Amino acid sequence: MYIKVNDVTIAFEDRGTGPPIVFLHAFPLNRAMWAHQAAVLSRQFRIISIDLRGFGESDAPFWRYSLEQYARDVKEVLASLRLDKALFVGLSMGGYLEFALYRLYPELMLGLVLADTRAQADKPEQIQWRFGLAQRTAARGPEAVIAEMLPKLLAPARYERDPDLVSQVKSLIAAAPVPGIVGALMAMADRPDSADLLRRITVPALVIVGADDVLTTTADAERMAQGIADAQLVVIPDAGHLSNLEQPDQFTAALEGFAQKVFRT
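Above: the chain's sequence. Below: its structure in token form.
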């Protein structure tokens, strides 16, 4: 499905019936990363998975991107579906987007699932790395991201023994348009620190992290869970940064149980 919002066309999938769950993908992937969760959870929930501007089947304009712009896009998509509240699930960059949404539109949120993400802003060296990767991507295309990020996205042992998953993730990255990659890198580098926001979050929250995540670590997840009142923490073994793809059954089971509590189904 497609809708024109804020001068770009946004692609999304709307599947199932019941209480709504909105899925926000990681960098530099697209909504296809949520296929397993959508297939299972759409049996009892309404699943909306969105391609953020610059990714998947959404438009990828050459222009400035920001987490706040992503948030405005998401709000408009939900408004077009006449949804004024939902449970949100974000992984990595999708988690950063959840923080932006909570700042701008806390009334939208019935609950948060923060997966393999962190509340802290980038350090100067991280900003510099994103700047450099943006330049290398502009010159070489998605191959620059594949070379630098793919081995870090999965648990080391899984990267070595699961060539099918490695190929799947590589294909998702390879499909990302250059303007979307560069724009998202700038958006993430510019994002504010959200550590102080944690204590202001009053909706139910679930923090999920792969035990072997080297990009956003279990320590990052523990800080978020401790900062949000009554937040739950789930650590998924034998999983890295893309825990929903590496351990789809465990990830989905944790999410399903949390969603049932939020919606009291």
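DSSP finds eleven helices and eight strands in the chain.
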